[in-house]
Structure formats: C-alpha cells, structure tokens
Amino acid sequence: MAMSTLTATNKGAATRDAILEQAYGIACSAGLEGLSIGPLAAAVGMSKSGVFAHFGSREDLQLAVLDKAAQLFTGYVLLSQLKQPRGLVRLRAIVDAWFDWSRHTDGGCVLLGAVSEYDDRPGALRDWVVEQQKRWRAALAQAVQLAVDNGELGADTDTEQLAFEIYGLALIVHHDAGLFGFDSARERGRRAFERLVRSYATPACAASPKA
C-alpha cells in the first residue's frame, strides 16, 4: 500500500472513531433515538455528508454505537475478570464490575437504554439488541455453571434462572445509582447478591464471604 493511501486510511479511521466517540457520548445521555446526524456533525466539525460518508445511514451509525457500547461493557465487566479463579470468586468479580459499570456510563448505559427503546420495535436495531442480550445472559450462565462445577453451588442449580435473578439485581443497582447515589445502590446490590448466592450454595459453601 502506498504511503499516501495508508495515511488516508489511517486518517479516515481516526475520523470515524472521533465521530463514534461523540455519538456514544450522546447516546449515553439521550439514547440511540437521540442521535441526530445534524447536531452530531456540528459537534465534530463536519458536514452531514461527511458523517454519512463514514456510516452510510443513521441506522448504521446507531448499530456502530451499539457495537462500541458492547465492546466497552464486555471488556470492563467480563474480560477483565477472566484472570480470577473460576467459580464464585470470578462470578462475584463479574457481578461487582457490572454494578460498578453504572459509574462509567456518563449518563446511562447505552445497552440497557437500547432494550427499552427497541424491545417492541422490529428491525435491525432490535435484532442486534436481542442477540447481544442473549450472548450476555449465556456468558453469565456459564460463569454460574463454573461455580456449580467447582461444587460451590448446588448441582441442581438452574443456571439460566440464577443468571436471570442476578440480572434483576444489576438492573435495580443501575436504577438506584442514578436516583439515590452509587455507593448506596452498590452496597445494597452486593448484600442482595450474597444472599442470593447463599440460597443456591452447597452446605459447605453456604458461609461464603458477606458484602
């Protein structure tokens, strides 16, 4: 590849990243439906056609923002915890990071917001949200299964049910963090998680660490 072509490619990628970063910030506070090409173009100092040159359509931009949100979320909540030992230690770390995520969303979680925005609106955005939520729920259930495999949770544990219940705790933590303060919400979430885990624990592990 010629040097001039490489430079143009790098510049194009950097411009796209800058647009996406701005769009992600807007989506955190205003939701994906709050994304408008005109104000976004003005915010990054470009024309509308310049923004369209990188994303093609508003829906393409929204999907790209969802991809970015999922990458950030997965890296912070899941991937960074994989260094922890398999089992309850890792599951607890994942849940704690999930609770903590509400401090890093600059107004709101794009992924949770998208669920509310598109749960009843058929189309590419809803399809993306459904698949992402399925993958995340499966990853959470897998973390639960590892705790079962370790003998820390009962062999009859319904991993999908426990993942569902943990998800409910994360929702209320994120809900309360914005309304009543993060520290209080996280503390209540931790206490609720430990009580929930004890209800599934094997007798030998029922005295797991308390929040």
TrEMBL record:
SUPFAM superfamilies: Homeodomain-like (SSF46689), Tetracyclin repressor-like, C-terminal domain (SSF48498). Residues 13-73 form the HTH tetR-type domain. Pfam families: TetR_C_13, TetR_N. Residues 36-55 bind DNA. Keywords: DNA-binding, Transcription, Transcription regulation. This is TetR/AcrR family transcriptional regulator.
